[in-house]
């Protein structure tokens, strides 16, 4: 039929052009011109990859600033047919997807509130991020953690506060987005300051 | 809501409309065959395909060619997804998709829906992402734009038999409009931090000593066309929330612009094709008005926060943060949400399932209004033109005159076909939702209790039939029932809608174009814009009111009383 030949031509031809050739050119050029970004903004220390500058990591120790709650999970090591909580599992980004009146959600928030200090608590400290990999916390959230980190590390609060300041970015171009504190950058700076 | 927040929204919208002006002029030139800078590639397609770009097709020929191209795309994508486990470029060893999931996914990408019942970094190989999804992101978008050009030509002159050549429109739009825009935007995205690599996933040892697998891939180019083509299917499971798919507020602002600019530009291209730019501006103004109102509603609802959490001692200053990342901020989340659901894109930079009830109702309602505000690339314009015909018909009834649009008499045949098209959406959405709410196999997919559970199911069929692709993600969508019926809803929303529209175009094209007279109802002024908005709300939206009352509205009032589920 006369309609099959053009249909096959455009689909196969464009699959080659847009699905193989164009991404190959993009990958080659991007890799040559912007190798760091094209490769995932990986951070290396002593020849080892310690993470990506864009992807959040889990921190639970007292001497580190803590990131936002994360709803990512992974296969349960005890029983691979089930999943278990695995915060900041970058291999499977996920949100809680719980509705605003969900008892499961509100129970989780209540549990986090118990550890979050006096009310009012910044919302980002007790709610799970949308990606499960949020690299940032709000400046208010960071400010409430300064005393704990300073005490755990035995350094003056003033110094920690200055490092929080250094890891804080304002809105992009001065207008887009919000002020935020990059948790991995901050914790790296704390470790390197010793 | 803050002044700075509104300044962000105003800035991004203004830049989008400003960009739409030259792009609209350029698309009109492409539609005319006046753009030729990739002539050797273009003619190669014609030679191999046996295509004569100068040979016009009537509406049937045009629609058949479109269906053939889409069927071929479906077959190839289905095969790639089933076989990805044994095909190359599969560094993470993703296995072939089940036939249910492959059917749903292939339909989803071919119909420009990009509903995703799988998670990208877990279930798709690099080959599937590039040669499968990226390609269909382009081709489903070119299909929509080509159809919109054909429908526009029906209004351009009188006594037309032919609407253009599908193969030529399709090839030109892909080569001259989408490909260059995606390349430029793709490089901008890499600069902002999106990966573009074929390397394996990286393994990191975190500061606390844990192992973290960092997924990579050819992300930036695919994400560029995902927004430009109003496709919306994420490279990663959490879509534009993923730090690699939405690295910062600039990236999210560019994505907002990318997903709205072609639908806006097509209105202006329409104005040029019919020889009266004011007609295109009127359609654009109505779209823009709805986007602004919807953005304000989402912004207000989310900024108020979750009252149940405020009562527990959470500071409401940041608004409702469950399911949101910090870096974008609420104003850009609200504008992104309004444009992605108004424009039939379906990408997300926040999780709708965790929105406040009214904040989540807005995206749901925007899709239900027919995906014309501004709608998908191409589909938004031809959907809007259907509503424009209905609007002049309603106006004609009020004053007792034969309605005309752009000098073309609108008669019984066109109105019957327009109503047929407009009724597809409520039939598919409400029909499938109603059946699914009594079928145990479907109900078991619902995550949340109470009215929110109903919203999850209603949103799924709304998103599928509206060819949007966003979701209330708590729903477990990868089941045979949902994969199949959502796939059917997507096919109905795309093809059962566009075939009657093409029939209208064919019928209108043949009619003479009467000159404007003293009694002509002007279709470029504020009166017509207001009438059009009213028709969209009443004909497009009213039938969904009962379902919205049972879902988000009931949830809102139960939330105010403190009830949980």
Short description:
With 194 residues, chain A is α+β, with helices and mostly antiparallel strands.
Written overview of the protein:
Chain B: GO terms for molecular function: P-type potassium transmembrane transporter activity; potassium ion binding. Chain B: This is Potassium-transporting ATPase potassium-binding subunit. The complex is a heterodimer of chains A (194) and B (565). With 194 residues, chain A is of the alpha+beta class. Chain A has eight helices and eight strands. Chain A has a three-stranded antiparallel sheet. In chain A, helix 6 crosses helix 7 (157-166). The model of chain A has no long low-confidence stretch (mean pLDDT 95). Chain B is an all-alpha fold and 565 residues long. Chain B has a domain at 13-279. Chain B is built from 20 helices and five strands. Chain B has helices at 3-31, 39-49, 59-83, 99-110, 120-123, 126-154, 166-192, 219-228, 249-273, 277-303, 307-312, 330-342, 357-368, 379-399, 412-436, 440-443, 451-465, 480-510, 526-541, 545-560; strands at 202-205, 211-214, 314-315, 404-405, 408-409. The chains are: A alpha+beta (194), B mainly alpha (565). Chains A and B meet through helix 1, strand 2, helix 3, strand 5 and helix 4 of A and helix 1, helix 2, helix 3, helix 6 and helix 7 of B.
What's the structural blueprint in terms of helices and strands?
The complex is a heterodimer of chains A (194) and B (565).
Chain A: H1 4-33, H2 35-38, E1 42-45, E2 48-52, E3 73-75, E4 83-85, H3 103-115, E5 121-122, H4 123-126, E6 136-137, H5 139-143, H6 146-153, H7 157-166, E7 168-169, E8 180-182, H8 183-192
Helix pairs in contact in A: 6-7
Chain B: H1 3-31, H2 39-49, H3 59-83, H4 99-110, H5 120-123, H6 126-154, H7 166-192, E1 202-205, E2 211-214, H8 219-228, H9 249-273, H10 277-303, H11 307-312, E3 314-315, H12 330-342, H13 357-368, H14 379-399, E4 404-405, E5 408-409, H15 412-436, H16 440-443, H17 451-465, H18 480-510, H19 526-541, H20 545-560
Antiparallel strand pairs in B: 1-2, 4-5
Helix pairs in contact in B: 1-7, 1-9, 1-12, 2-7, 3-4, 3-6, 3-18, 4-18, 6-7, 6-8, 6-14, 6-18, 7-8, 8-9, 9-10, 9-12, 10-12, 10-13, 10-19, 12-13, 13-17, 13-20, 14-15, 14-19, 15-17, 15-18, 17-18, 17-20
């Amino acid at each position: 039929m006369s309609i099959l030949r053009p249909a096959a031509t455009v689909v196969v031809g464009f699959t080659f052009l847009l699905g193989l050739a164009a991404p190959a050119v993009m990958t080659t050029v991007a890799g040559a011109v912007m190798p760091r970004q094209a490769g995932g903004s990986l951070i290396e220390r002593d020849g080892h990859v310690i993470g990506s500058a864009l992807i959040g990591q889990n921190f639970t120790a007292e001497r580190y600033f803590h990131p936002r709650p994360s709803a990512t999970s992974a296969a349960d090591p005890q029983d691979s047919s089930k999943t278990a909580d695995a915060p900041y599992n970058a291999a499977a980004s996920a949100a809680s997807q719980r509705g605003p009146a969900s008892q499961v959600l509100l129970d989780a928030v209540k549990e986090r509130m118990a550890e979050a200090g006096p009310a009012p608590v910044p919302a980002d400290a007790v709610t799970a991020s949308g990606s499960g990999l949020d690299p940032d916390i709000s400046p208010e959230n960071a400010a409430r953690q300064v005393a704990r980190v300073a005490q755990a590390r035995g350094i003056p609060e003033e110094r920690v506060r200055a490092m929080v300041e250094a890891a804080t970015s304002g809105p992009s171009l001065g207008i887009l987005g919000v002020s935020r504190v990059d948790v991995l950058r901050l914790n790296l700076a704390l470790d390197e300051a010793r | 809501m803050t002044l700075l927040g509104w300044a962000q929204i105003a800035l991004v919208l203004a830049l989008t409309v400003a960009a739409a002006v030259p792009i609209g002029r350029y698309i009109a030139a492409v539609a005319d065959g006046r753009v030729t800078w990739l002539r050797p590639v273009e003619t190669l397609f014609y030679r191999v395909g046996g295509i004569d770009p100068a040979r016009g097709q009537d509406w049937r020929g045009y629609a058949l060619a479109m269906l053939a191209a889409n069927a071929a795309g479906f077959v190839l994508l289905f095969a790639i997804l089933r076989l990805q486990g044994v095909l190359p470029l599969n560094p993470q060893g993703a296995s072939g998709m089940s036939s249910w999931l492959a059917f749903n996914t292939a339909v989803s990408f071919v119909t420009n829906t990009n509903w995703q019942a799988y998670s990208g970094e877990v279930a798709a190989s690099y080959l599937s992402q590039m040669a499968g999804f990226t390609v269909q992101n382009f081709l489903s978008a070119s299909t929509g734009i080509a159809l919109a050009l054909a429908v526009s030509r029906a209004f351009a002159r009188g006594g037309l038999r032919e609407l253009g050549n599908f193969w030529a429109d399709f090839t030109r739009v892909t080569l001259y409009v989408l490909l260059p825009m995606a390349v430029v935007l793709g490089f901008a995205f890499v600069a902002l931090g999106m990966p573009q690599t074929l390397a394996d996933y990286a393994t990191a040892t975190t500061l606390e000593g844990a192992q973290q697998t960092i997924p990579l891939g050819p992300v930036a180019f695919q994400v560029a066309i995902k927004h430009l083509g109003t496709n919306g299917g994420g490279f990663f499971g959490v879509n534009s929330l993923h730090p690699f798919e939405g690295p910062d507020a600039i990236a999210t602002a560019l994505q907002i612009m990318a997903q709205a600019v072609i639908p806006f530009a097509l209105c202006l291209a329409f104005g040029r094709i019919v020889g009266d730019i004011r007609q295109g501006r009127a359609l654009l103004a109505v779209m823009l008005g709805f986007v602004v109102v919807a953005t304000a509603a989402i912004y207000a609802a989310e900024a108020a926060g979750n009252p149940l959490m405020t009562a527990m001692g959470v500071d409401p200053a940041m608004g409702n943060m469950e399911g949101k990342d910090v870096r974008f901020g609420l104003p850009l989340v609200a504008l992104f949400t309004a444009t992605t659901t108004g424009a039939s894109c379906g990408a997300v930079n926040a999780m709708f399932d965790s929105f406040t009830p009214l904040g989540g109702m807005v995206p749901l309602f925007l899709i239900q209004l027919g995906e014309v505000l501004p709608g998908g690339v191409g589909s938004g314009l031809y959907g809007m033109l259907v509503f424009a015909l209905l609007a002049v018909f309603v106006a004609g009834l009020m004053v007792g005159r034969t309605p005309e649009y752009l000098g073309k008499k609108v008669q019984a045949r066109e109105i019957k076909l327009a109503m047929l098209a407009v009724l597809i959406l409520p039939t598919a959405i409400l029909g499938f939702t109603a059946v699914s709410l009594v079928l145990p196999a479907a109900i078991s997919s619902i995550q949340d209790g109470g009215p929110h559970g109903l919203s999850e199911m209603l949103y799924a069929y709304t998103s599928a039939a509206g060819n949007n692709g966003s979701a209330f993600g708590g729903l477990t969508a990868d089941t045979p029932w949902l994969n199949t019926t959502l796939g059917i809803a997507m096919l109905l929303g795309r093809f059962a809608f566009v075939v009657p529209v093409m029939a209208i175009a064919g019928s209108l094209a043949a009619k003479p174009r009467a000159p404007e007279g003293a009694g002509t109802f002007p279709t470029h002024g504020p009166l017509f814009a207001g009438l059009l908005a009213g028709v969209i709300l009443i004909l497009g939206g009213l039938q969904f009111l009962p379902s919205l009352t049972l879902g988000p509205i009931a949830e809102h009032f139960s939330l105010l009383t403190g009830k949980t589920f």
